[in-house]
Amino acid sequence: MMSQEMNDQITRVGPGAPAGAVLRHYWQPAALSDELMGARPVVPVTLLGEELVLFRDEGGTLGLIGRHCPHRGADLAYGRLEDNGLRCPFHGWHFDCSGQCVEQPGEPEGSRMHENIRAVSYPVREMNGIIWAYMGPGDPPQFADFDCFRAPESHVFAFKGLWECNWLQAMEVGIDPAHASFLHRFLQDEDPADSYGKQFRDSAGNTQIPMTKLLRDYPRPDITVDETDYGLKLTALRHLDDGRTHVRVTNQIFPQAICIPMSREMTITQWHVPVDDETCYWYSMFTSFGAPVDKAKMRDQRLEEHRLPDYAPLKNARNNYGYDAEEQGKLTYTGMGLDINVHDQWAVESMGRIQDRRFEHLGKTDVGIVKYRRMLRAAIAAVEAGDASGLKMQNGGTEAIRGPLSNDAIAPDDNWVAASEAADLERRGQCSWDASV
Ligand code: FES
Ligand SMILES: [Fe+2]
């Protein structure tokens, strides 16, 4: 049983909070590139409980600085984007992309006061549709060579969505391979040919069995969890009646991402990013090993379910997630429609803003969650002791971290490790970009 103190320790993220200190050692998704595509590329960003503003100046340089003007606190998200920086509309103080105040037009001529004024600012980097921020101490770590970063921009589509709960319970649904047989159960199977851009709608491995049927018919997976240099590798085995084994490999990427198969063509790498203790965004990078991603189609599919500018889902607690008792009887396990994102959203939001883990009872299938929390607590202890060098992907060498293998495969016999690796290598071998591992 978990104490309140430990639950607070592993969930809270504001400045000075233990889990927040661990997350600050890693690049965090701050915004989608899409959000800066308008005529005025300025967007407010709340990240790890800190209020910031992200902008792109006329020269294309990105800046991520504190949202409240260092003069008297007005909101720089309403700033004038001009002169290669952001100018506060209150008294005209002007800040460059690094947060340095470069002009105070109302102060006496010749005043050098601005030289000592600096807004909070963080390094940013744009990669494959996401703008990343580093809010931690020292130099930012290198990015690992994951598929979602190595693939060309044409083969990666990024999107995000708001969930009204703590980041940890959002992440934990992604390292729980058992729930797919229940939460995402469809009582009828769709034609896998209509599966583009959707999760669990393809056929399983190299079979004609729809994933929906396989998950429904085999609800008791054998789950093993192995620690890796990037986090955890989760293997879920479903032993079919005909002697074959379905192998599904998913991953936890420390500290707060998962990498899972979406279809035979694509994987999803998804970060669960705290806005504050009680709200988070999922940021997904859909990476194709086959054809370039049809971004317009995938964006339209998802914009039908989300409102802008905050990417809040249209189905939510205020409208009971679209719950329909008749549908629950006939078509889906949840009665909340066919979009599996809504199912996950209901599961994690309905726990309460911060799940009260004092009252949970973990079973055998929760092994991924147990191992992850152990890893997180060890990282918290290391950071508190002042030595983060042992944390995953903090000490260079990240260019050697590739993949990770993330797929569904069918093994004809009990040699499922070989079958899973062979399916992965086959896909990588046929890929138009360098997906070698
Ligand atoms: S509050 Fe921003 S310039 Fe005065
Ligand atoms: Fe799920």
Automatic annotation (TrEMBL):
Signal peptide: none annotated. It comes from the Bacteria. It comes from Gymnodinialimonas phycosphaerae. The keyword Nucleotide-binding does not apply. Residues 27-133 form the Rieske domain. It holds the Pfam family Rieske. Keywords: 2Fe-2S, Dioxygenase, Iron, Iron-sulfur, Metal-binding, Oxidoreductase. This is Aromatic ring-hydroxylating dioxygenase subunit alpha. One of its GO terms (molecular function) is dioxygenase activity.
